[in-house]
Amino acid sequence: MTPHPQTGAEVKAADRAHVFHSWSAQGLIDPLAVAGAEGSYFWDYDGNRYLDFTSGLVYTNIGYQHPKVVAAIQEQAGRLTTFAPAFAVEARSEAARLIAERTPGDLDKIFFTNGGAEAVENAVRMARLHTGRPKVLSAYRSYHGGTATAINMTGDPRRWPSDNGTSGVVHFWGPFLYRSPFYSSNEAEECARALTHLEDTIAFEGPATIAAIVLETIPGTAGIMTPPPGYLAGVREICDRYGIVFVLDEVMAGFGRTGKWFAADHFDVVPDLLTFAKGVNSGYVPLGGVAISAEIAATFETRPYPGGLTYSGHPLACAAAVATIQVMEEERVVEQAAHIGETVLGPGLRELAERHPSVGEVRGTGVFWALDLVRDKETREPLVPYNASGAAAAPMAAFAAACKQNGLWPFVNMNRTHAVPPCNVSEAEAKEGLAALDAALAVADEHTV
């Protein structure tokens, strides 16, 4: 980690001259030039090292540069770098087999994509073709991707500039007791009222017009709101009753993030379609996909499925997935995520909430946690307004800057910070992150009433 500031300056200059960044006003950003990464850490060209409590974009589930996965990519590149998706290729077949073994129920067919948004796009296409219906229901507090259908399904403000109002998407309120839209006082009420609201939405939209209900099993970017007991089972029952395809989006929550292979395993619920990406190979080579039930797969047994991608099941990506799943088994990474959540992150974050007036609620499981930051614990007023920017977002910006000064790279979204380190983060690293959060929350406390 020898400093090379001149190289860093050159990397930054080339980036600013030629790279167009996502979700950004290009003239208002100042991206950090990254020199390297390993495990739970990355560093810049000035020699500053950061503990990554974002896992990239919540995808480096086995951390950076795991030697066994790097070696698998190198070996595959030497043997068969690429091949068209219409052929049977060993890495692709083995990746599909290993994924299907771990998905819940009979989700035994795998359609590969290049990432999560494409997985959602194809899941919706499958549902519409399977049912012959046009509409899709999704929750307001959600994120499903940046492509055409996926962004219209998304419930956060990133949808607004691309929302054309004609994509056949209807939004509804999912359960979220801390900021309940149903005035509930406990989880049982929140569950019952959220399910009633969903049924009312279906009734007024017309059950025979709805192809699918798409939910993040545990919403990620929108705030890591674990659904109350019985909610997902209730959605499953509603879908069965009306012939609606139930799609669970596990792009962020899957592959160990919640302390189970899939978040659905916490709720004993099997969807008809399950989307994945990110943790399937820790993002080492882009890969996503849809796990498909036997019933929906049968729809396309003699009828062609009208969708495909040039790089579907790319051998390098699939080899990385095979190696990642093997590493997760050998090193008990899923069990480590559960252990860290139960013994370090959960208790540590709740202890921070007791001491810091800026922490309104702690939510999460495994290595998938959110702190809801507030100005006032009694009123639950968010530390910054919804979708705040500029001066209005200054308290969260100050909090994030304090994290970085303490060697922690935070995941900040609206009035929340998420604690989402790699699934194989060590106890010492998790405690290091908690200490940095503790110091940074003192800055957030300055903006409370």
Overview in brief:
With 449 residues, the chain is of the alpha/beta class.
CA radius of gyration: 22 Å
Question: Oligomerization state of this entry?
Answer: single chain
The total of beta strands comes to: 16
Look at the helices and sheets and give the structural class.
Answer: alpha/beta
How far apart are the first and last residues' alpha carbons, in Å?
Answer: 42 Å
Overall geometric form: globular
State the strand order across the main sheet: 4-10-9-8-7-5-6
* Largest beta-sheet details: 7 strands, mixed
What is the N-to-C succession of helices and strands? Answer: HEEEHHHEHEHEHEHEEEHHHEEEHEEEH
Low-confidence stretches: none
Strand content: 15-25%
Give an account of the 3D structure.
This protein has 449 residues and is of the alpha/beta class. It is built from 13 helices and 16 strands. The strands form 3 sheets. The chain has a 7-stranded mixed sheet with strand order 4-10-9-8-7-5-6, sandwiched between helices. Strands 11, 12, 13, 15 and 16 form a 5-stranded antiparallel sheet that branches. A hairpin with a 4-residue loop joins β2 (41-44) and β3. α11 runs parallel beside α13 (427-445). It starts with a helix and ends with a helix. 50% of the residues are buried.
Secondary structure: elements and pairs:
Blueprint: H1 5-18, E1 34-38, E2 41-44, E3 49-52, H2 55-58, H3 67-79, H4 90-102, E4 109-113, H5 116-131, E5 135-139, H6 148-153, E6 169-172, H7 187-205, E7 210-216, H8 231-242, E8 245-249, E9 273-276, E10 288-292, H9 294-299, H10 315-330, H11 333-355, E11 359-365, E12 368-376, E13 381-382, H12 394-405, E14 408-409, E15 411-413, E16 416-419, H13 427-445
Parallel strand pairs: 3-14, 5-6, 5-7, 7-8, 8-9
Antiparallel strand pairs: 1-2, 2-3, 4-10, 9-10, 11-12, 12-13, 12-16, 15-16
